[in-house]
Design brief:
Layout (H helix, E strand, L loop, with lengths): L1 H41 L10 H20 L5 H31 L10 H30 L3 H12 L1 H11 L1 H16 L7 E4 L2 E8 L3 E6 L4 E5 L2 H4 L3 E2 L7 E9 L5 H12 L10 E8 L4 E9 L2 H22 L13 H7 L1
Amino acid sequence: MDLTFIYDHLITFGPILISGVIGFVFGYSLVWLFSKLYVKIWNTDAQLLFALRKPLAILVMIVFLYLSSKYYYDSLNEYWRQALEIITIISLSWLFINLAGLGRALLTRQYNTDDPNNLKARKVYTQIRVFERIIVVLIVVMGSAFVLMTFDSIKSFGASIIASAGIASVIVGLAAQRLIANLLAGFQIAITQPIRLDDVVIIEKEWGWIEEITLTYVVVRVWDKRRLIVPSTQFIEKPFQNWTRNSSDILGTVFIYLDYQFPVDALRNELNKLLENNELWDGKVNVVQVTDLTNLVMEIRVLVSAKNSPTAWDLRVHIREKLIEFLQREYPEYLPRTRVMLEKEERKEND
């Protein structure tokens, strides 16, 4: 009985399964052949097309399964038909997601974000990347909805939910309020671009680079390789510093506190020597200024410029270290000191 049962099912479903395998191989080979022709005709890399192989092969397989089923049966079994519909919807969603990734890769291929002057490239890449994520979310939501619509029981269940959605909509709306706010903030970031990928920012008292922008949050790569996850709304609602908003060049500051009697010109001359032939300096800004006076010392600010923020940081550290060495070596008597004045009576007691 068992052998007869197995034999009958093999006779019934064997041709259908074989046609499905043939369809998958045919679809896979079709994309492979198209990739080879693409390379030969346009003389460019077709690696991006390989992401389409599996979903297209599955779609061709479904066509073969459907045709073979119709050939062996007058009408498709309800469950078999529903299974083919679900697989078709999932495969189409998968294909559209890969097409979105392919479009993003093709559009950003001409832009090099590794270039030091990459403002335009980062702007375009950020917009395309965010819109790709929006499209992927829409595809997943629509695909899931179409899959659920293939079940009659869920259709009736959905109708009952809609009928009693008065209170439920309020609860869901309150629960999803922050999520919706972050989604809207993600759209606003994509359009207005207060930040872009690889921008240098200071947020939550942390200094780092924008590493990833999603619809709901932004990943900031902190200078010590930590990752700061920030909600999208924070870049819309709260102030933050963007050091590369319009250009990557930036000023670096060094503050030094010295006695009033210190000759400031000596510090200017030493700074000129330090910046001369210095690869970290971009040759634009070289300033020494007395910016404040206290009851004990004067505040001297040194301004130097660099091509980008990491270089500016290294330049500030270098200048600070070398100026301290210069002061210790040439003018140690003008370093900050605490003055104490003794009254005459205290002096006699001490004597």
